Amino acid sequence: QVQLVESGGGLVPPGGSLRLSCAASGRAFRSDFMAWFRQAPGSAREFVGAIRWSGANTYHANAVKGRFTVSREFTKNTVYLQMNRVKPEDTAVYYCAAQTGSDIYTSSAYHYWGQGTQVTVSS
Fold first, then answer.
1. Rounded to an integer, what distance in angstroms lies between the CA atom of residue 25 and that of residue 63?
2. Which of 13, 27, 55, 114 has the most CB atoms less than 10 A away?
3. Contact 84, 64 (CB under 8 A)
4. How many CA atoms lie within 13 A of 120 on its CB side?
5. Beta strands 18-25; 46-52: pairing state
6. SS3 30
């Protein structure tokens, strides 16, 4: 059984920082890619960033490039999303996902999902 558990969400002021964590257990460690998606109310789920589990290559959406960074800690089966210089439009539920394929930008390509963690950017 694969489990992905996110943590670290909360309320952060504009310009602030937050780090999300995603702990993977079960067969997730065999995944090719781990990713972060987000979904704001009334909007579709969108790709934020991804990391190749074995090689640590990273990919980030244009909307967050230069502000957010995906990383992973191999020994802990944990993926992180470091969020810096956050903006009100970053407010969303953030989801961790894992897959064994290579279509990293499409949410339907991911086999496993976490429950999500709310991030609210507001003063």
1. 30
2. 114
3. no
4. 6
5. unpaired
6. helix
